[in-house]
Amino acid sequence: LEITPGEGGLPRLTVISPVSTAEIYLHGAHVTQFTPRGEPPLMFMSRKSHYVDGKPIRGGVPLIFPWFGPNLADPKLPAHGFIRTRAWKLESVTRGEQGAVAVRLTLAPDAQAREIWPREFALAFTVTVGATLEMAMSVTNTGDRPFRFEEAMHTYLAVSDIRNISIDGLAGRTFIDKMDHAAHKTQPSGPFGITGETDRVYLNTPDTVVVTDPAGSSSRGPRMIAVSKQGSASTVVWNPWIAKAAAMADFGDDEWPGMLCIETANAADNALSLEPGQSHTMSATIALL
Ligand code: BG6
């Protein structure tokens, strides 16, 4: 493990296990890459990403807390909460089974966080880099009153062409369609593809989601990426498509075919509450099948 200045001079950890490598920025505790040995990288990273204090990194795994999307009570607050732009603290690095490397990072509220979200909390994020990428975020209420929150690991998967992939594991689930006035809809049976701008929060989704990328290269044939999870009731599916990609300053106009967000979350109707002293852990494992 090494900490060196990454893009924009932000401190970056390079994690090397016997079977994979990963990169994590302290800024946002942001995993920007995971590459199993002999395979192409699993994460999409935008070439237009910012790497500066106060702005989120575009691609990889932004962490989202304590609200998902815009803050409904105050739209001037940053979208997706504030932890993706905070400098996290590196707490420990340990080696586990078969040489997997576990990196633990923590975050407590600073004065600015207390101003926009006056709650007392402690966050810990553990990234285990081995044959799979395991990520676990725990939230503890360290204050003296309950609070409600949303959270997500906003994972950007690299795909060869979004127009050819299929997504399995969400059949029959209700989703909030942000492209259609937040209408609640039901996902039909069977796998599905993406044919336009997509922004959906699927509710009550315990199952593993598998993305099949027929033209994606993998040493085992067509690429299949599985996202499995615990402590997460929601799954967000997002691709900006053409117009939204063009409208985002930190995303290349032609990059939209190369990514798909499958986000492990507790959002909207699946928001969580914690009593004083209570903790909740949400975890996700990203694996190449
Ligand atoms: C997704 C949201 O999770 O993130 C979208 O569902 C949003 O609505 C997207 O556009 C990107 O958000 P941001 O704040 O990183 O540009």
From TrEMBL:
Pfam families: Aldose_epim. Keywords: Isomerase. GO terms for cellular component: cytoplasm. CDD domains: D-hex-6-P-epi_like. GO terms for biological process: carbohydrate metabolic process. Its EC number is 5.1.3.15. GO terms for molecular function: carbohydrate binding; glucose-6-phosphate 1-epimerase activity. It catalyses: alpha-D-glucose 6-phosphate = beta-D-glucose 6-phosphate. The active site is at H154, E263. Belongs to the glucose-6-phosphate 1-epimerase family. This is Putative glucose-6-phosphate 1-epimerase. InterPro entries: Aldose_1/G6P_1-epimerase, G6P_1-epimerase, Gal_mutarotase_sf_dom, GH-type_carb-bd. SUPFAM superfamilies: Galactose mutarotase-like.
